[in-house]
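Weekly structure sync - notes
Attendees: PM, LS, DV (DV joined late)
Agenda: review two folding runs queued last week.

Item 1: First target. Sequence and structure tokens pasted below for the record.
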Amino acid sequence: MGRKEIVQEDFISADVLNRMSVTLDYDLRFEPGAVVPKLWHWLFFLPHVKASDTGTDGHPKTGGFIPALEGLDRRMWAGSRFRFHSDLKAGQPAERKSVVKNVTRKQGRSGELGFVLVEHAISQSGRRVLTEEHDIVYKPAPTSAATAASINEGLKPPEKRAQWSDSNLHSK
């Protein structure tokens, strides 16, 4: 398999960070140069994909950056591992280099599955600030409305307050 790679540039906007802060009901205010809280890098480097190039799940179809996984149309996040090398800063450009490291197909209890490992390396001002290994699983989409309904059966509405916290963040 040839290594697939994408390099994206983004501006780490204090405005985007401030919008996330109020969304989470935090009393944080970000100015240029402020340290971005861990995992908030996910607010940036969003894919630029035409609607016609997205699948039914809203993610980019396979066959581009992610190699084709015929019959496996339902994308699920399976996990991530992080190495924080330095602080990501607000009000500055940054670059993310993404590389497909591995693609495997396996047979699971629910049918065929596709596993994709992507490494994202984020740099700012010429130095690496974060390395993320992202595990993605693809499986067949539900084949009937009844199957789709059973997937959502028993789900509870989301909690109003997050169960995760960061000691560097202070809420009301």
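Item 2: Second target, run right after the first with the same settings.
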Amino acid sequence: MNGSAVIDDVEVRALEVDDAIARFKKGRWAGSLNSAQAQAGLASWKATALALSRASKTGDEANPQQALVFSKGKVASFIGNGWEWPYALDPKVGNPSLATKIGAFPMPSRKAGRYMPTFLGGSNLAVPVTSRQKALAADWIAAFTNTQNMTRMATAGGVIPNTTSLARINASKPTLAPFAEAAKYSWFVPATPKWANVESANVLQNMLVSILTNRSSIKAASTRASGQISRILNART
């Protein structure tokens, strides 16, 4: 485990017991990282990070790139995204000789027989407001993401489709099957354009650094972060 686990895994652990970073009620958002369940998740995360990670308490997964730290034999494992596996094997910067020696698995849940709730996010398909062909672009997105094309990509490309109803396509593939199953227990950040402002303000990162470095207690840091999230998501544009 290295820097990425410090930054990224907290959301997963907190969400396993609380379901959301923020909740929308009566027309307003309310940050929930200071709930009792989320604080318990943060306490578990902190104990794990301090016990198993040698990474900087103020860094992230990009400095240095965790896949390359792994490829150089500096750590035995890391929590990462799907694209980081091939990066670790890149002949220019990684170690291709590891190709037959490594594997991947979704993190287990605290609930028996299930996987830890999975964050599903990353690249987005969108139509710019400046587009002169908005309808055509929207039609292309609809075609690209429809069941027929998702089935083709999952079957031939070895990817996880965009709906749990198609997860069975990967059931016979040893590497993908567990991740397709884990996708059923997925979650996402608050569905609002203003979430980008939370990201740019480094609210979660600052909270985690404060907790790991003991600058703040878990209660104080999570309460401060929840307040910031609430203010940002409810701000008038």
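Discussion on item 2: The first helix runs from residue 3 to 18.
Action: LS to circulate a short write-up before next sync.
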